[in-house]
Design brief:
Length: 78
Amino acid sequence: MADEISTLMAKNKNKKVLLRLRNTKTLTGILKDFDIHMNLTLEDAEEEFEGKTEKVGKTLLRGDNILLISLQKEESEK
């Protein structure tokens, strides 16, 4: 299963992702890199919390703070 997740994440590099974090914040940004611990690097990241959006730019997220990762649908799925 870990290989499937790595493959899926690799296919979504340089695409926009949505993340839900443990602290109830939501981040969106361009997935640039990840590792086996699901530490992620995002570019052009934006943080949403309590209805407010703030640009945070390039961000490194530790994998154990991420609850959910939402990937874009592939063109064939639309």
